[in-house]
Amino acid sequence: MMSILLYLSIVMCKDDVYAAVKKLLMDKFGLQEDMISPDKLLEDELDFDSLDAVDLLIYLENHIEGKPESSIFRNVKTVQDVVDILYPLWKNEA
Q: Which of 3, 46, 57, 92 is 20 to 30 A from residue 27's alpha carbon, by CA?
């Protein structure tokens, strides 16, 4: 699987970040492509539990330069929330 850092180093816009997050959710968490959309609630609709959330956070911390602080993920509810957090982190690295 391509590292999200490598993928984000070649992306151009939020749509590309969404594609990277979607791929991560499919590859690492076994979600089907048709289950994932920006408005999907991670916990309620995609069955993310607290361990999945921690796994996602650890993966992102290990694969994104600048180590995103866990506190910025506290209010994440949807797939789009993840994209909205990651996009500025990537943009600041570009």
A: 92
9-29 pLDDT, tens digit each = 555 688 888 998 999 999 999
Kindly report the length of the chain: 94
Cβ pair 18, 83 in contact under 8 A: yes
Residue found under tokens 């992102």: 60
Tell me, what DSSP letter sits at residue 78?
B
Q: Cα(62)–Cα(3) distance, rounded to whole angstroms? A: 10
At 65, list the tokens: 């330069």
Q: Could you give all domains of the chain from N- to C-terminal order, each with its CATH number? A: 4-93 (1.10.1200.10)
